[in-house]
Amino acid sequence: MPDEPSGAPERRVLLAAPRGYCAGVDRAVITVEKALDLYGPPIYVRKQIVHNKHVVATLEKRGAVFVDSTEDVPEGETVIFSAHGVSPAVHEEARALQLKTIDATCPLVTKVHREAVRFANDDVDILLIGHDGHEEVEGTAGEAPSHITLVQSPEEVDAVQVRDPERVVWLSQTTLSVDETMETVRRLREKFPALQDPPSDDICYATQNRQVAVKQMAAECDLVIVVGSTNSSNSVRLVEVAVEHGARDGHLVDYADEIDEAWLDGVSTVGVTSGASVPELLVREVLEWLDARGYGDVALVTAAEESLMFSLPREIRRDLKARDGVEAAKVKHDPGAIS
Ligand code: SF4
Protein backbone atom coordinates (compact mmCIF):
# COMPACT_ATOMS: atom_id res chain seq x y z
CA MET A 1 0.00 0.00 0.00
CA PRO A 2 1.44 3.48 -0.85
CA ASP A 3 2.54 5.70 2.04
CA GLU A 4 0.09 8.42 2.97
CA PRO A 5 1.54 11.93 3.06
CA SER A 6 0.10 12.60 6.52
CA GLY A 7 -2.38 11.28 9.05
CA ALA A 8 -4.51 8.19 8.63
CA PRO A 9 -4.94 6.69 5.16
CA GLU A 10 -8.15 7.35 3.29
CA ARG A 11 -10.66 4.68 4.28
CA ARG A 12 -13.27 3.30 1.96
CA VAL A 13 -15.32 0.21 1.20
CA LEU A 14 -15.88 -1.38 -2.20
CA LEU A 15 -19.14 -3.31 -2.10
CA ALA A 16 -19.57 -6.05 -4.69
CA ALA A 17 -22.74 -6.44 -6.74
CA PRO A 18 -24.19 -8.90 -7.20
CA ARG A 19 -23.70 -10.55 -3.82
CA GLY A 20 -25.84 -12.58 -1.44
CA TYR A 21 -28.96 -14.55 -2.20
CA CYS A 22 -29.29 -16.28 -5.55
CA ALA A 23 -32.59 -17.43 -7.03
CA GLY A 24 -32.11 -21.03 -5.85
CA VAL A 25 -31.42 -20.05 -2.23
CA ASP A 26 -34.29 -17.59 -2.20
CA ARG A 27 -36.64 -20.31 -3.40
CA ALA A 28 -35.35 -22.90 -0.92
CA VAL A 29 -35.63 -20.62 2.11
CA ILE A 30 -39.10 -19.42 1.13
CA THR A 31 -40.11 -23.06 0.66
CA VAL A 32 -39.32 -23.81 4.31
CA GLU A 33 -41.04 -20.62 5.51
CA LYS A 34 -44.18 -21.35 3.47
CA ALA A 35 -44.21 -24.99 4.60
CA LEU A 36 -44.08 -23.88 8.25
CA ASP A 37 -46.84 -21.44 7.54
CA LEU A 38 -49.03 -23.93 5.66
CA TYR A 39 -48.55 -27.11 7.65
CA GLY A 40 -47.23 -25.84 11.01
CA PRO A 41 -44.12 -27.03 12.84
CA PRO A 42 -42.30 -29.29 12.93
CA ILE A 43 -41.18 -29.30 9.31
CA TYR A 44 -38.26 -31.63 8.74
CA VAL A 45 -35.46 -30.56 6.40
CA ARG A 46 -32.87 -33.03 5.18
CA LYS A 47 -29.45 -31.37 5.67
CA GLN A 48 -29.07 -27.61 5.91
CA ILE A 49 -31.60 -26.05 3.54
CA VAL A 50 -28.79 -23.75 2.36
CA HIS A 51 -25.25 -23.54 3.73
CA ASN A 52 -25.66 -20.57 6.04
CA LYS A 53 -25.50 -20.67 9.82
CA HIS A 54 -27.82 -17.68 10.35
CA VAL A 55 -30.50 -18.93 7.96
CA VAL A 56 -30.51 -22.38 9.56
CA ALA A 57 -30.65 -20.97 13.11
CA THR A 58 -33.49 -18.60 12.19
CA LEU A 59 -35.57 -21.33 10.58
CA GLU A 60 -34.91 -23.64 13.54
CA LYS A 61 -36.39 -21.03 15.84
CA ARG A 62 -39.52 -21.01 13.67
CA GLY A 63 -39.92 -24.78 13.91
CA ALA A 64 -37.81 -26.33 11.16
CA VAL A 65 -35.98 -29.48 12.25
CA PHE A 66 -32.77 -30.16 10.34
CA VAL A 67 -31.82 -33.82 10.08
CA ASP A 68 -28.92 -35.64 8.46
CA SER A 69 -30.93 -38.43 6.93
CA THR A 70 -34.50 -39.22 5.90
CA GLU A 71 -34.31 -42.06 8.45
CA ASP A 72 -34.34 -39.40 11.17
CA VAL A 73 -37.80 -38.20 10.05
CA PRO A 74 -40.79 -39.80 11.80
CA GLU A 75 -43.00 -41.88 9.52
CA GLY A 76 -45.62 -39.93 7.61
CA GLU A 77 -44.11 -36.50 8.34
CA THR A 78 -43.14 -33.83 5.79
CA VAL A 79 -39.51 -33.52 4.75
CA ILE A 80 -37.97 -30.86 2.53
CA PHE A 81 -34.92 -31.68 0.41
CA SER A 82 -32.32 -28.92 0.45
CA ALA A 83 -31.23 -26.65 -2.42
CA HIS A 84 -28.18 -28.87 -3.04
CA GLY A 85 -30.26 -31.77 -4.32
CA VAL A 86 -30.48 -35.44 -3.43
CA SER A 87 -29.79 -38.70 -5.21
CA PRO A 88 -32.59 -41.01 -6.42
CA ALA A 89 -31.74 -43.32 -3.49
CA VAL A 90 -32.85 -40.60 -1.05
CA HIS A 91 -36.19 -40.19 -2.85
CA GLU A 92 -36.57 -43.96 -2.61
CA GLU A 93 -35.83 -43.98 1.16
CA ALA A 94 -38.43 -41.26 1.68
CA ARG A 95 -41.02 -43.25 -0.27
CA ALA A 96 -40.28 -46.36 1.80
CA LEU A 97 -40.83 -44.34 5.00
CA GLN A 98 -44.05 -42.86 3.55
CA LEU A 99 -42.77 -39.34 4.05
CA LYS A 100 -44.39 -36.38 2.34
CA THR A 101 -41.58 -34.77 0.37
CA ILE A 102 -41.07 -31.27 -0.94
CA ASP A 103 -38.07 -30.91 -3.20
CA ALA A 104 -36.32 -27.54 -2.86
CA THR A 105 -33.40 -28.59 -5.08
CA CYS A 106 -32.26 -25.59 -7.09
CA PRO A 107 -33.45 -26.00 -10.69
CA LEU A 108 -29.87 -25.33 -11.83
CA VAL A 109 -28.70 -28.35 -9.82
CA THR A 110 -31.56 -30.41 -11.26
CA LYS A 111 -30.31 -29.42 -14.72
CA VAL A 112 -26.93 -31.04 -13.92
CA HIS A 113 -28.72 -34.16 -12.62
CA ARG A 114 -30.59 -34.42 -15.93
CA GLU A 115 -27.36 -34.04 -17.89
CA ALA A 116 -25.80 -36.86 -15.84
CA VAL A 117 -28.76 -39.15 -16.49
CA ARG A 118 -28.77 -38.39 -20.21
CA PHE A 119 -25.03 -39.03 -20.68
CA ALA A 120 -25.21 -42.19 -18.58
CA ASN A 121 -28.11 -43.44 -20.70
CA ASP A 122 -25.88 -42.88 -23.74
CA ASP A 123 -23.21 -44.92 -21.92
CA VAL A 124 -20.76 -41.98 -21.89
CA ASP A 125 -18.23 -41.75 -19.04
CA ILE A 126 -18.85 -38.62 -16.96
CA LEU A 127 -16.00 -36.75 -15.26
CA LEU A 128 -17.69 -34.76 -12.52
CA ILE A 129 -15.55 -31.85 -11.33
CA GLY A 130 -16.43 -31.15 -7.72
CA HIS A 131 -15.58 -31.66 -4.08
CA ASP A 132 -15.88 -35.07 -2.46
CA GLY A 133 -18.44 -35.11 0.34
CA HIS A 134 -20.33 -32.00 -0.79
CA GLU A 135 -24.07 -32.72 -0.76
CA GLU A 136 -24.53 -31.50 -4.31
CA VAL A 137 -21.82 -33.87 -5.57
CA GLU A 138 -23.36 -36.78 -3.65
CA GLY A 139 -26.74 -36.04 -5.23
CA THR A 140 -25.43 -35.69 -8.79
CA ALA A 141 -23.13 -38.72 -8.52
CA GLY A 142 -26.06 -40.75 -7.21
CA GLU A 143 -27.91 -40.25 -10.51
CA ALA A 144 -25.39 -42.38 -12.39
CA PRO A 145 -22.89 -43.93 -9.98
CA SER A 146 -21.53 -46.45 -12.47
CA HIS A 147 -20.71 -43.75 -15.05
CA ILE A 148 -19.37 -40.92 -12.87
CA THR A 149 -15.77 -40.34 -11.79
CA LEU A 150 -15.11 -37.44 -9.45
CA VAL A 151 -12.24 -35.08 -10.32
CA GLN A 152 -11.52 -32.68 -7.49
CA SER A 153 -8.69 -30.55 -8.89
CA PRO A 154 -6.34 -30.11 -11.86
CA GLU A 155 -3.79 -32.21 -9.98
CA GLU A 156 -6.10 -35.23 -10.00
CA VAL A 157 -6.35 -35.34 -13.80
CA ASP A 158 -3.25 -37.53 -14.28
CA ALA A 159 -4.87 -40.38 -12.37
CA VAL A 160 -8.23 -40.26 -14.20
CA GLN A 161 -9.13 -43.39 -16.17
CA VAL A 162 -12.07 -43.85 -18.56
CA ARG A 163 -13.38 -46.84 -20.48
CA ASP A 164 -13.32 -45.16 -23.90
CA PRO A 165 -11.49 -41.81 -24.37
CA GLU A 166 -13.74 -41.11 -27.39
CA ARG A 167 -16.88 -41.18 -25.21
CA VAL A 168 -16.28 -38.90 -22.26
CA VAL A 169 -17.91 -35.68 -21.02
CA TRP A 170 -17.21 -33.33 -18.12
CA LEU A 171 -19.86 -31.89 -15.81
CA SER A 172 -19.34 -29.87 -12.64
CA GLN A 173 -20.64 -28.81 -9.27
CA THR A 174 -22.45 -25.46 -9.61
CA THR A 175 -20.42 -23.53 -7.03
CA LEU A 176 -16.77 -23.98 -8.03
CA SER A 177 -14.05 -21.51 -8.93
CA VAL A 178 -14.54 -20.80 -12.63
CA ASP A 179 -10.78 -20.42 -13.23
CA GLU A 180 -9.76 -23.59 -11.42
CA THR A 181 -12.50 -25.58 -13.16
CA MET A 182 -11.35 -24.33 -16.56
CA GLU A 183 -7.80 -25.41 -15.69
CA THR A 184 -9.09 -28.87 -14.75
CA VAL A 185 -10.98 -29.03 -18.05
CA ARG A 186 -7.88 -27.89 -19.98
CA ARG A 187 -5.84 -30.72 -18.48
CA LEU A 188 -8.64 -33.24 -19.03
CA ARG A 189 -8.83 -32.21 -22.69
CA GLU A 190 -5.07 -32.61 -23.08
CA LYS A 191 -5.49 -36.15 -21.84
CA PHE A 192 -8.80 -36.86 -23.65
CA PRO A 193 -8.96 -34.68 -26.79
CA ALA A 194 -12.49 -35.91 -27.60
CA LEU A 195 -13.79 -34.68 -24.22
CA GLN A 196 -17.31 -33.27 -24.62
CA ASP A 197 -18.50 -30.08 -22.90
CA PRO A 198 -21.77 -29.89 -20.93
CA PRO A 199 -24.69 -28.61 -23.02
CA SER A 200 -24.54 -25.35 -21.00
CA ASP A 201 -22.51 -23.97 -18.08
CA ASP A 202 -22.85 -26.06 -14.93
CA ILE A 203 -21.21 -23.43 -12.71
CA CYS A 204 -24.29 -21.33 -12.17
CA TYR A 205 -24.87 -17.68 -13.05
CA ALA A 206 -24.82 -16.64 -9.38
CA THR A 207 -21.46 -18.26 -8.65
CA GLN A 208 -19.98 -16.75 -11.80
CA ASN A 209 -21.34 -13.24 -11.22
CA ARG A 210 -20.14 -13.10 -7.62
CA GLN A 211 -16.67 -14.18 -8.68
CA VAL A 212 -16.54 -11.63 -11.53
CA ALA A 213 -17.49 -8.82 -9.12
CA VAL A 214 -14.78 -9.85 -6.66
CA LYS A 215 -12.19 -10.04 -9.43
CA GLN A 216 -13.09 -6.50 -10.50
CA MET A 217 -12.36 -5.04 -7.09
CA ALA A 218 -9.72 -7.39 -5.64
CA ALA A 219 -6.62 -5.57 -6.89
CA GLU A 220 -7.76 -2.34 -5.21
CA CYS A 221 -8.46 -4.02 -1.87
CA ASP A 222 -6.09 -4.35 1.07
CA LEU A 223 -8.65 -6.62 2.69
CA VAL A 224 -11.70 -8.47 1.36
CA ILE A 225 -14.36 -9.60 3.81
CA VAL A 226 -16.67 -12.29 2.47
CA VAL A 227 -19.82 -12.86 4.51
CA GLY A 228 -20.65 -16.55 4.45
CA SER A 229 -20.34 -19.86 6.27
CA THR A 230 -17.34 -22.16 6.14
CA ASN A 231 -19.40 -24.99 4.62
CA SER A 232 -20.64 -22.73 1.80
CA SER A 233 -18.63 -23.71 -1.27
CA ASN A 234 -19.32 -20.55 -3.25
CA SER A 235 -18.50 -18.32 -0.23
CA VAL A 236 -15.16 -20.07 0.38
CA ARG A 237 -14.35 -19.72 -3.33
CA LEU A 238 -14.94 -15.94 -3.12
CA VAL A 239 -12.15 -15.56 -0.54
CA GLU A 240 -9.80 -17.62 -2.73
CA VAL A 241 -10.70 -15.64 -5.86
CA ALA A 242 -10.16 -12.32 -4.04
CA VAL A 243 -6.67 -13.26 -2.88
CA GLU A 244 -5.72 -14.85 -6.23
CA HIS A 245 -6.71 -11.61 -8.00
CA GLY A 246 -4.72 -9.21 -5.89
CA ALA A 247 -6.41 -8.60 -2.55
CA ARG A 248 -3.71 -8.40 0.11
CA ASP A 249 -5.82 -10.32 2.61
CA GLY A 250 -9.20 -12.06 2.64
CA HIS A 251 -11.44 -13.52 5.36
CA LEU A 252 -14.74 -15.33 5.62
CA VAL A 253 -17.09 -14.35 8.47
CA ASP A 254 -20.59 -15.41 9.39
CA TYR A 255 -21.22 -12.30 11.47
CA ALA A 256 -19.74 -8.80 11.86
CA ASP A 257 -18.54 -9.58 15.38
CA GLU A 258 -16.17 -12.20 13.96
CA ILE A 259 -14.11 -9.49 12.24
CA ASP A 260 -10.75 -9.06 13.95
CA GLU A 261 -9.80 -5.39 14.46
CA ALA A 262 -6.20 -6.37 13.66
CA TRP A 263 -7.21 -7.16 10.07
CA LEU A 264 -7.69 -3.40 9.57
CA ASP A 265 -4.07 -2.48 10.44
CA GLY A 266 -2.82 -0.24 7.64
CA VAL A 267 -5.89 -0.97 5.54
CA SER A 268 -7.19 1.73 3.24
CA THR A 269 -9.69 -0.16 1.04
CA VAL A 270 -11.93 -2.97 2.29
CA GLY A 271 -13.84 -5.07 -0.23
CA VAL A 272 -17.11 -6.58 0.98
CA THR A 273 -19.17 -9.29 -0.62
CA SER A 274 -21.28 -12.29 0.40
CA GLY A 275 -21.97 -15.81 -0.74
CA ALA A 276 -25.12 -16.91 -2.52
CA SER A 277 -26.70 -18.24 0.70
CA VAL A 278 -26.24 -15.07 2.75
CA PRO A 279 -29.10 -12.72 3.70
CA GLU A 280 -28.37 -9.06 3.05
CA LEU A 281 -28.95 -8.07 6.68
CA LEU A 282 -25.65 -9.77 7.59
CA VAL A 283 -23.82 -7.64 5.01
CA ARG A 284 -25.51 -4.52 6.39
CA GLU A 285 -24.19 -5.40 9.85
CA VAL A 286 -20.66 -5.71 8.44
CA LEU A 287 -21.00 -2.32 6.74
CA GLU A 288 -22.19 -0.78 10.02
CA TRP A 289 -19.24 -2.36 11.85
CA LEU A 290 -16.84 -0.88 9.29
CA ASP A 291 -18.60 2.50 9.37
CA ALA A 292 -18.07 2.67 13.11
CA ARG A 293 -14.33 2.33 12.44
CA GLY A 294 -14.10 5.06 9.83
CA TYR A 295 -14.94 3.06 6.73
CA GLY A 296 -18.19 4.84 5.94
CA ASP A 297 -17.44 5.71 2.32
CA VAL A 298 -19.03 2.87 0.33
CA ALA A 299 -18.76 2.53 -3.46
CA LEU A 300 -20.58 -0.17 -5.40
CA VAL A 301 -18.65 -2.36 -7.86
CA THR A 302 -21.27 -3.82 -10.18
CA ALA A 303 -20.42 -6.76 -12.40
CA ALA A 304 -23.91 -7.83 -13.48
CA GLU A 305 -27.60 -7.28 -12.91
CA GLU A 306 -29.62 -10.29 -11.77
CA SER A 307 -33.35 -10.75 -12.07
CA LEU A 308 -33.79 -14.53 -12.20
CA MET A 309 -36.47 -16.00 -9.94
CA PHE A 310 -37.74 -19.55 -9.68
CA SER A 311 -41.26 -20.60 -8.88
CA LEU A 312 -41.78 -22.49 -5.62
CA PRO A 313 -42.01 -26.30 -5.56
CA ARG A 314 -45.32 -27.49 -6.93
CA GLU A 315 -46.64 -28.86 -3.60
CA ILE A 316 -46.22 -25.44 -1.99
CA ARG A 317 -47.81 -23.61 -4.93
CA ARG A 318 -50.73 -26.04 -4.92
CA ASP A 319 -51.38 -25.65 -1.19
CA LEU A 320 -50.92 -21.86 -1.19
CA LYS A 321 -53.32 -21.59 -4.09
CA ALA A 322 -55.87 -23.79 -2.32
CA ARG A 323 -55.58 -21.67 0.83
CA ASP A 324 -55.08 -18.13 -0.45
CA GLY A 325 -55.69 -18.04 -4.20
CA VAL A 326 -53.41 -17.69 -7.20
CA GLU A 327 -51.60 -14.45 -6.28
CA ALA A 328 -50.45 -15.77 -2.91
CA ALA A 329 -48.76 -18.70 -4.61
CA LYS A 330 -46.26 -16.36 -6.29
CA VAL A 331 -42.85 -15.86 -4.66
CA LYS A 332 -42.44 -12.67 -2.67
CA HIS A 333 -38.80 -11.59 -2.71
CA ASP A 334 -37.19 -9.56 0.04
CA PRO A 335 -33.42 -10.00 -0.01
CA GLY A 336 -33.08 -7.94 3.19
CA ALA A 337 -34.96 -10.50 5.27
CA ILE A 338 -33.82 -14.06 5.68
CA SER A 339 -36.02 -15.03 2.76
FE1 SF4 B 1 -28.78 -22.58 -7.57
FE2 SF4 B 1 -26.43 -21.44 -8.12
FE3 SF4 B 1 -27.83 -20.65 -6.05
FE4 SF4 B 1 -26.68 -23.05 -6.00
S1 SF4 B 1 -25.65 -21.07 -6.05
S2 SF4 B 1 -28.74 -22.54 -5.31
S3 SF4 B 1 -26.92 -23.62 -8.16
S4 SF4 B 1 -28.46 -20.47 -8.23
Based on the structure, what is the oligomeric state of the protein chains?
Answer: single chain
Largest sheet: 5 strands, parallel
User: Order of strands across the widest beta sheet?
Assistant: 10-9-11-1-12
Structural class: alpha/beta
Radius of gyration: 21 Å
What sort of overall outline do the alpha carbons produce when their principal axes are compared?
globular
Q: What hetero molecules are bound to the protein chains?
A: iron/sulfur cluster
Features:
339 residues, alpha/beta, five-stranded parallel beta sheet, four-stranded parallel beta sheet, 10 helices, 12 strands, globular, disordered N terminus, binds iron/sulfur cluster
Structural summary, described in words:
This protein is of the alpha/beta class and 339 residues long. The protein has ten helices and twelve strands. The strands form three sheets. A five-stranded parallel sheet has the order 10-9-11-1-12, with helices on both faces. β9, α8 and β10 form a beta-alpha-beta unit. The chain starts with 11 loop residues before the first strand and ends in a 15-residue tail after the last helix. The N terminus is likely disordered. The structure holds iron/sulfur cluster. Iron/sulfur cluster binds next to α1, α4 and α7.
Quick take:
This protein has 339 residues and is α/β, with parallel strands linked by helices.
